[in-house]
Input
Amino acid sequence: MILSTRGLSKRFGGVHAVEGVDFDLPQGQIRAIIGPNGAGKSTFVGLVSGRIPPSAGSVAFEGADVTGLPAHRRIGLGMAYTFQITSVFANLSLHENVALAARARLGSDRAAVEARVASALTRVGLSEPPETAAGDLSYGHQRLLEIAMGLAQEPRLLILDEPTQGLTDGEVAAFIQLVRDLGGPTTILLIEHNMTVVMETAERITVMNFGQILAEGTPAEIRADAAVQAAYLGTG
Amino acid sequence: MEFGPYLMLATLEGAVAAAVLALTAVGLSLVFGVMRVVNVAHGEFYMIGAVIAWVVATGIGGHPAVGFVAALLVAPLVAGSVAAAADYLVLKRLNYDPETTIVATIGLLYIIQQVTLMTFGPEARPVEAPFDARLALPWVEVVAGQWQLYWPWGLSTTAYKLFVIGAAVVVLLGVWLVMARTRLGMVLRAAQLDPEMARAFGIDVDRVYALVFGIGAGLAALGAVLIVPIQQAHYLMGGDPLLLSFIVVIIGGLGSVAGTVVAAVLIGLSDGIISMFFSPTLAKIIATVLVACVLVFRPQGLFGTRAA
Amino acid sequence: MSDRRATALHAAIVAALAAGYFVLPEYHSGNLARIMVLAVYAMGYNILFGYTGLLSLGHALFFAAGMYGLALPIEHLGLAPLPAFAIGVTAAFVVSAAIGALALRTVGVAFMIVTLMFAQAGFLLALYFGAWTGGDEGFAIPQSLRSVAGIDLTAGDTRYGAALVLFAACLFITARVVQTPFGRALIAIRENEERARMLGYDVTRLKLWAVILSGTMAGAAGAAYALLFGYAGASFAGVQHSILPLLWVLLGGAGTTIGPLIGTGFMFYLIDISSEITTAYMIVAGLALVLLVLFARAGIAGELRRRVWRWLP
Output
């Protein structure tokens, strides 16, 4: 297991955003987390990545307990996290955004950083001049840049929080291909609303509702699950 | 003098300081609470109050009480107008961004202070108290197993100092009544809780902000008018009240008016008492470091409950 | 490419300053020596404010730590200037590390107030120990104690040279640091702290090193000021002296390598000229602060970069 949580909980005031989640993600899997708005998906990956401190429970990454580690240490161990709300460095160049992501791992090895930046930008298909300010990119391309920053870290676990929001159909198709290519060496945890993306990329799906895990299974099993349909798919 | 009477005198001096400090600090706290603006120029509005008091008192002449009453009305109005204008001309245009407004109010501090230097001059100028009766103070002693009052030689205060304390209490009660019981108070609290919502309900938030900034400055000026018969008006007099008000507002919890008053009494009294027995500089050093540590380790203040 | 242009620009500035000594009348070269030392103070401030995005209102504490760290051992122990300079810089290093560790637990407005409070405590401490520091009056360091390796630093030419060496060193250090991964990470923190954290940067540690580098440079300026101009006094620890580097950096251009020099020089002469007209010369500083935040946030070098030279470092 690359990632396991036990009894992971987060309360905001009196609200149980995430409650007692036991979650296991095997090495190399592409896993999607789906669920209605407010189901606790983003809070859950926030707890995993260390952005949000848990109220109770534990997180283990590659067999080691990381519950007490701050976010930057977890990232240093091989996680990467892309933001749901686009959070690029708007005043810095496209190149510098990705280079910052690469440098956090590579340090001052300029050649290695350059190579990784070029490869990350090519993989997500960002072809603007690298000195373009990130804030000048279209919304969809800022999403792609966000993903490129995740890729440039060459993580073992890549957490993508709603990566396709705001992308065009063509960009979504390219994204699906990208995730499939990445799978294998990179374990991917994907929060996604777009069911096409989920069904075409995920090997297994976890369904969350009211802060708890409602169901887990292959795409086919989830599609057939009556409880999931009632909570989530059935309405749509 | 014995220790007991001496302590009583120190407490009284501390109470006067606390009264004026409470007025000044509540002004600062009100501005921070409603507008989230840290007004570094607050001490200068205090100074304006003292200077205007001198101008009015010397301009009117006659019995000192006439000038004093006039100053009580005019000085807060002038300081408040200057503040409201500064809000309209500068702070509003900065969208009340917290860090930028601090830089801007530092600029205001220098502008106000230096303009005063150019016009009022570098001298310290006294203002006569409206009345100057001295009151002898009693102390108790045990004579033949009986407690009895006596009037030690030199143990006295002025009626005016007692008046300062009383006046500050009245003004603070007034502020509390306005905040708790009037429509204006309700509007202020609405603007504090959620400016956007207040705007949606038709409250002119820009005007409320200018008003609050004016009232905050006016309270500082009022404190200065009260103190100027005891101290003197000087263009650099704003520094100490600013620092002390900061301390009070931080200890009391940023933006909490009730906490501010409690903290002002505490700080004013202990500052007065400690300064009588120890070096005032040492007292200030300890107070400053302690307050910085309160901000570092307990940002909600000693009496506050919510995070600032 | 832009690296090379930046290096050329910095070299040209240092060369122009060196030539300035031979061209300018003595009055102005004396001023320029002072401006260069104060610009080092501003460059230190700029590392924290301009590059890391942390607004301190207490840098006078670090300047004063360097100043007293050098001046007190010379005055009271008869120490030689070079080891005293090392003590001054070390003192600033230690003080900035301690203040940084405490103040960085707060953010935004609280950070500004906490730094202001600690600096105020330092200022009062200098007054309290007036027997050693001379309090507000300060004390002069005798000419006889201010020579290094037989070079008398009180003479116009050696003083100018020493100021230039320190200025050039700090300019190239700043220019280099902001190109390193460390410096780039500081800029990332300024732009979006949460994103930097989630890229795996230890932002708390990075900010602490930014405070230390910034404070130590300010301390070096303080030590150099005391050594070259022979005076140490509590006014250099006061609030006003914390606000001046903010003003210089805002005016010259925050987050640019050459902004601190431009801002310091400009403001120095502005105050110099207005102090001939009025005793209330600090009104210039007040007006400048208000006008800058209202109309020219980027400062002089920042506007140049925005309008003319995109490559400006």
